[in-house]
Design a protein that fits this description.
Elements (H helix, E strand, L loop, with lengths): L13 H13 L2 H10 L6 H45 L4 H5 L2 H19 L3 H16 L6 H17 L4 H5 L3 E5 L2 E6 L9 H13 L3 H17 L12 H14 L3 H14 L4 H16 L19 H10 L14 E4 L4 H4 L3 E8 L2 E6 L4 H11 L4 E2 L2 E3 L2 E3 L6 E6 L5 H14 L11 E6 L5 E4 L18 E8 L5 E2 L2 E3 L4 E3 L6 E5 L13 E3 L2 E3 L3 E8 L16
Antiparallel strand pairs: 1-2, 3-4, 4-5, 5-16, 6-9, 7-8, 9-10, 10-19, 11-17, 12-16, 12-19, 13-18, 14-15, 14-17
Helix pairs in contact: 1-2, 3-6, 7-9, 9-10, 10-11, 11-12, 12-13
């Protein structure tokens, strides 16, 4: 077995859970909510934004530390200047100088007392301890190791779904490689380049998941950047050129490129001739190559995923917004002012865009006002928790859904009541509990997404049936804001996607009139490339809609 040992420091969110249980007994509800929100920071952009304030505090502590250290070093320079000046100007003639009892006394005092005070001064330790104490005050609000992992996975997800160039990302650019060269798919107002250590940690996350496809792609630029800066040192870096080459060599070995793994290992040994582990690896690689000639055409494959069957379609729809319906070719795909024959909408009809007929999907423009959207986001933010999905009879967090969500009752705020009334007026459906679920507010994380799924239950053991009101017959999804890039809603089987339209709302039927699930509603929330995506979902159930949406034996209805 390959000889490899790498350090890994982890702080688990289990601490958050333990604190929650303890504080629940004591009744500190506000503190519970704060800790729940901080846990799994990467799954919600609004939580990541809160981390900016934490870093501002750390900057204050660092500035104080630098000022204290500057004073200490300036004092050391003063002492150095005083003594070196004596040696340059007075002690050239040692006998003459020591004839003066004052010079003799001060020399003895310096050597017996002053140098001792300089060498064993506690000032440096006191400054460092003050800096550490400041850091420890903010430590509970800092991202955990899982957040670093999640953020790295988010970047790799964006890289895959939007076919982004790693070289472009390293340079702060969102580009896609084409036959004609790199093409910008989004130009950020503010850009930031990644360091060798930034790339190393992304590659290391992939490496520890045994995802050598991504580890190679990220460790290669890391190695180049560390080579360029070799023999320089950055305090904040975790990795080094030797660390990067070590991970990269093994990654290439696992992908079958043994000759390159050997070349990289020899480079490590040149940097560190005493590394016995790398020496053993070199011997192993040489034996493998001696027994079997090297294959120069090694093709690295992307790792499999849970949605492999629909991956190509899903990613294409996210990248291009898919084959959008051509309204001018089908008169049934139209835009109008919709009242649904409801008196509440007669004086202020809703702008309706029929996006698709199969499945039936409509987009209501300007469904919610800026003020209402802001209120919903602010009111739900303190209660955001990691989003879950149905897993058998239980619910669990999964990698294919990266977001946080909160549930708002209709009595939670007058705005929620207004939205429920508006949804009922537009759809004619009964949206009062238990015939509909509470309003779910969702904030997506770094590369936040929800892979292809159905909103309705596909298993009789689903937790959705606990309401005893049947399956989810319809979905009403409100876009609470806009995003700069990505985040569209892709309907996989129907082969179209809808971009995020600020303050608009999507509506579709999940079930046919005969109660069977509509397979064409398979949909996904594409990863948010740039932006802070918020949506609010209202799921309406079968029961309570008997007179609003009548049954039909026709499977096409």
């Amino acid at each position: 077995m390959q000889d490899r040992t790498h350090r890994s420091t982890r702080t688990h969110c289990g601490v958050c859970i333990l604190s929650f249980k303890t504080l629940l007994v004591l009744g500190f509800i506000s503190l519970i909510l704060a800790q729940q929100t901080l846990c799994e920071m990467y799954t919600s952009v609004v939580n990541v934004q809160q981390a900016i304030a934490v870093e501002k505090e750390l900057l204050k502590y660092l500035n104080s530390y630098i000022e204290d250290e500057t004073l200490r070093l300036n004092d050391l320079k003063r002492f150095y200047g005083k003594v070196s000046n004596l040696h340059a100007n007075v002690f050239q003639g040692a006998g003459t100088a020591m004839a003066n009892p004052l010079f003799a006394y001060t020399l003895i005092k310096r050597l017996q007392s002053e140098w001792l005070n300089v060498v064993y001064s506690n000032e440096a330790n006191e400054n460092t301890q003050a800096f550490k104490s400041g850091y420890e005050k903010e430590e509970s609000r800092l991202p955990k190791f899982e957040d670093l992992q999640g953020a790295a996975k988010g970047l790799m997800r964006l890289q895959d779904v939007y076919a982004l160039s790693v070289k472009g990302l390293v340079n702060g650019l969102f580009q896609r490689d084409t036959a004609g060269g790199a093409v910008d798919i989004y130009r950020a107002v503010n850009s930031i380049t990644l360091s060798g250590d930034d790339c190393f940690l992304i590659g290391k996350v992939a490496y520890e998941m045994e995802d050598y496809y991504h580890s190679v792609l990220w460790l290669e630029p890391a190695a180049s950047l560390f080579r360029r800066a070799y023999r320089t040192w950055n305090t904040e870096d975790e990795g080094s050129l030797e660390d990067v080459l070590d991970h990269l060599a093994f990654s290439h070995f696992k992908t079958g490129n043994v000759s390159y793994a050997l070349s990289l290992s020899r480079e490590i040994l040149h940097l560190d001739p005493s590394n016995k582990r790398v020496t053993r690896n070199i011997e192993k690689y040489e034996k493998i190559l001696a027994a079997s000639p090297a294959n120069s055409d090694v093709l690295i494959q992307r790792p499999n995923t849970t949605y492999l069957q629909t991956r190509n379609t899903y990613e294409w729809l996210c990248q291009t917004l898919g084959s959008q319906p051509r309204h001018y070719e089908n008169p049934r795909l139209h835009c109008d002012f919709h009242t649904n024959s409801n008196p509440a909408l007669v004086l202020k009809p809703m702008r309706r865009e029929v996006v698709s007929l199969q499945p039936y999907v409509v987009l209501y423009h300007s469904f919610i006002s800026d003020h209402e959207a802001k209120t919903i986001k602010e009111f739900s933010a303190p209660g955001l928790q990691r989003s879950v999905v149905a897993s058998g009879v239980k619910q669990s967090t999964v990698e294919y859904r990266i977001s946080k969500s909160a549930w708002l009752k209709d009595t939670a705020h007058p705005v929620v009541q207004k939205l429920d009334q508006r949804i009922a007026a537009l759809t004619g459906l009964n949206v009062h509990p238990p015939y509909a679920e509470y309003l779910q507010v969702v904030n997506y994380g770094i590369g936040g997404h929800y892979e292809p799924h159905f909103d309705h239950a596909t298993s009789e053991s689903s937790p959705l049936y606990k309401l005893n009101t049947g399956n989810r017959v319809a979905t009403f999804m409100i876009y609470l804001n806009s995003v700069e890039a990505g985040g569209s809603t892709a309907f996989i089987s129907a082969n179209f996607s809808v971009p995020v339209v600020k303050n608009a709302a999507l509506f579709w039927w999940n079930l046919h009139r005969n109660g069977k699930g509509n397979g064409d509603t398979l949909h996904a929330g594409c990863p948010v490339l740039v932006g802070d995506k918020w949506v609010a979902n209202k799921w309406v159930h079968e029961f309570g809609q008997e007179f609003q949406r009548r049954c039909s034996p026709n499977p096409d209805d």
